[in-house]
């Protein structure tokens, strides 16, 4: 298994696979299906200062190759998560990526300070990119200066490495990545969902109560690959890549694009065993590709060839 190990700031992973935030809850449901210790890490659902009920239903809709969601950051609040949810995961050998969200810089700082002090939390993942909350969220994720200012403040109160999760809903993703790197981010997670919408032909109205939602799943994979390829050449901090991963080949593609670890989101809803299945398939795939260690793949699509840089 050593050939799958990867190391990122704060994350020593036995393999590069983790469930993506919001698609794994706090692990309870999946713990009944497989041994969570097989995972490289786990990103838990976003935590906010207070408990949130989320948006009104309907808040998910299927699409031909993915789904739309407008959950709206439903969670029991940071204190409950630290007291009730994290202890449940204690018996597993599982680095925890604590996803945090808020409406103001102060909110983020409060959650970051609390979460980073928890002994089970390995790193923070700053969700500046949730497209489904009216207040806050989206502005942090679409303006480079605002994202950098938030990163700096969170870094100042956090005792653990901070990964910033970027929104794909921007014109220049590399500019966002450079801004948060310069503000002290230890890593980048990308991508979050793409803003989308569906309309019901019977009612002639938007299907989601929130009208718009975030598109995820196989439909967004090429967007994620392009953005990771671009960002990984623009910054020197590592990337946790995600967006439509649903098989071991996808993981290789993300790593060749420049990801150092890979998160699996929507595919967990299609097949709850997808993460352990991918992990068990990776060694054979590396064998076929004549790759002795998975980290050799990171950035392989641009590292050895002349690809014009799209930034800097
Ligand atoms: C139902 C649902 C809930 C999500 N909740 C969160 C969240 O709380 N925090 C976050 O940063 N991303 C959240 N995401 C985004 C995923 O973590 C991931 O970035 C995105 O879905 C792209 O990956 P995928 O195509 O593999 O799903 C959520 C996605 C889905 C589908």
From TrEMBL:
<dbReference type="GO" id="GO:0004589">
    <property type="term" value="F:dihydroorotate dehydrogenase (NAD+) activity"/>
</dbReference>
<dbReference type="InterPro" id="IPR005720">
    <property type="entry name" value="Dihydroorotate_DH_cat"/>
</dbReference>
<feature type="binding site">
    <location>
        <position position="191"/>
    </location>
    <ligand>
        <name>FMN</name>
    </ligand>
</feature>
<keyword id="KW-0665">Pyrimidine biosynthesis</keyword>
<comment type="function">
    <text>Catalyzes the conversion of dihydroorotate to orotate with NAD(+) as electron acceptor.</text>
</comment>
<feature type="binding site">
    <location>
        <position position="217"/>
    </location>
    <ligand>
        <name>FMN</name>
    </ligand>
</feature>
<feature type="binding site">
    <location>
        <begin position="45"/>
        <end position="46"/>
    </location>
    <ligand>
        <name>FMN</name>
    </ligand>
</feature>
<feature type="binding site">
    <location>
        <position position="45"/>
    </location>
    <ligand>
        <name>substrate</name>
    </ligand>
</feature>
<keyword id="KW-0288">FMN</keyword>
<comment type="pathway">
    <text>Pyrimidine metabolism; UMP biosynthesis via de novo pathway; orotate from (S)-dihydroorotate (NAD(+) route): step 1/1.</text>
</comment>
<keyword id="KW-0285">Flavoprotein</keyword>
<feature type="binding site">
    <location>
        <begin position="69"/>
        <end position="73"/>
    </location>
    <ligand>
        <name>substrate</name>
    </ligand>
</feature>
<protein>
    <recommendedName>
        <fullName>Dihydroorotate dehydrogenase</fullName>
        <ecNumber>1.3.-.-</ecNumber>
    </recommendedName>
</protein>
<dbReference type="InterPro" id="IPR050074">
    <property type="entry name" value="DHO_dehydrogenase"/>
</dbReference>
<comment type="similarity">
    <text>Belongs to the dihydroorotate dehydrogenase family. Type 1 subfamily.</text>
</comment>
<dbReference type="Pfam" id="PF01180">
    <property type="entry name" value="DHO_dh"/>
</dbReference>
<feature type="domain" description="Dihydroorotate dehydrogenase catalytic">
    <location>
        <begin position="4"/>
        <end position="286"/>
    </location>
</feature>
<dbReference type="GO" id="GO:0005737">
    <property type="term" value="C:cytoplasm"/>
</dbReference>
<feature type="binding site">
    <location>
        <position position="99"/>
    </location>
    <ligand>
        <name>FMN</name>
    </ligand>
</feature>
<dbReference type="InterPro" id="IPR001295">
    <property type="entry name" value="Dihydroorotate_DH_CS"/>
</dbReference>
<comment type="subunit">
    <text>Heterotetramer of 2 PyrK and 2 PyrD type B subunits.</text>
</comment>
<keyword id="KW-0520">NAD</keyword>
<dbReference type="InterPro" id="IPR013785">
    <property type="entry name" value="Aldolase_TIM"/>
</dbReference>
<dbReference type="InterPro" id="IPR033888">
    <property type="entry name" value="DHOD_1B"/>
</dbReference>
<feature type="binding site">
    <location>
        <position position="127"/>
    </location>
    <ligand>
        <name>substrate</name>
    </ligand>
</feature>
<feature type="binding site">
    <location>
        <begin position="243"/>
        <end position="244"/>
    </location>
    <ligand>
        <name>FMN</name>
    </ligand>
</feature>
<dbReference type="GO" id="GO:0006207">
    <property type="term" value="P:'de novo' pyrimidine nucleobase biosynthetic process"/>
</dbReference>
<keyword id="KW-0963">Cytoplasm</keyword>
<dbReference type="InterPro" id="IPR024920">
    <property type="entry name" value="Dihydroorotate_DH_1"/>
</dbReference>
<dbReference type="InterPro" id="IPR049622">
    <property type="entry name" value="Dihydroorotate_DH_I"/>
</dbReference>
<keyword id="KW-0560">Oxidoreductase</keyword>
<feature type="binding site">
    <location>
        <position position="165"/>
    </location>
    <ligand>
        <name>FMN</name>
    </ligand>
</feature>
<feature type="binding site">
    <location>
        <begin position="192"/>
        <end position="193"/>
    </location>
    <ligand>
        <name>substrate</name>
    </ligand>
</feature>
<feature type="binding site">
    <location>
        <position position="21"/>
    </location>
    <ligand>
        <name>FMN</name>
    </ligand>
</feature>
<feature type="binding site">
    <location>
        <position position="127"/>
    </location>
    <ligand>
        <name>FMN</name>
    </ligand>
</feature>
<feature type="binding site">
    <location>
        <begin position="265"/>
        <end position="266"/>
    </location>
    <ligand>
        <name>FMN</name>
    </ligand>
</feature>
<dbReference type="InterPro" id="IPR012135">
    <property type="entry name" value="Dihydroorotate_DH_1_2"/>
</dbReference>
<feature type="active site" description="Nucleophile">
    <location>
        <position position="130"/>
    </location>
</feature>
<dbReference type="GO" id="GO:0044205">
    <property type="term" value="P:'de novo' UMP biosynthetic process"/>
</dbReference>
């Amino acid at each position: 298994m050593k050939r799958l190990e990867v190391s990122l700031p704060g994350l020593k992973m036995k393999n590069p696979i983790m469930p993506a935030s919001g698609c794994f809850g706090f692990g309870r449901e999946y713990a009944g299906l497989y041994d969570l210790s097989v995972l490289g890490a786990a990103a838990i659902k976003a935590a906010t200062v207070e408990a949130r009920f989320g948006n009104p239903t309907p808040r998910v809709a299927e699409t031909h190759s993915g789904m739309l969601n407008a959950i709206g950051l439903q969670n029991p609040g940071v204190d409950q998560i630290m007291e009730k949810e994290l202890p449940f995961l204690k018996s597993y050998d599982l680095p925890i990526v604590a996803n945090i969200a808020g409406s103001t810089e102060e909110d983020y700082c409060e959650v970051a300070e609390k979460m980073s002090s928890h002994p089970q939390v390995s790193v923070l993942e700053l969700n500046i990119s949730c497209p489904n909350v009216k207040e806050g969220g989206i502005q942090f994720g679409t303006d480079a200066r605002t994202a950098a200012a938030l990163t700096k403040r969170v870094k100042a109160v956090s005792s653990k490495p901070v990964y910033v999760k970027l929104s794909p809903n921007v014109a220049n993703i590399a500019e966002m990545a450079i801004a948060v790197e310069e503000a002290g981010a230890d890593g980048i997670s990308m991508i979050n969902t793409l803003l989308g919408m569906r309309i019901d032909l019977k009612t002639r109205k938007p299907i989601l109560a929130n009208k718009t939602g975030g598109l995820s799943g196989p439909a967004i994979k090429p967007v994620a690959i392009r953005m990771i390829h671009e960002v990984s050449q623009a910054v020197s901090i590592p990337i946790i890549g995600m967006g439509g991963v649903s098989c071991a080949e996808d993981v290789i593609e993300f790593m060749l694009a420049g990801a150092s670890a890979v998160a699996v989101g929507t595919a967990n809803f299609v097949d709850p065993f997808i993460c352990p299945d991918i992990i068990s398939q990776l060694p054979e795939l590396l064998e076929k590709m004549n790759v002795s260690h998975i980290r050799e793949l990171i950035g392989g699509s641009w590292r050895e060839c002349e690809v014009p840089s799209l930034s800097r």
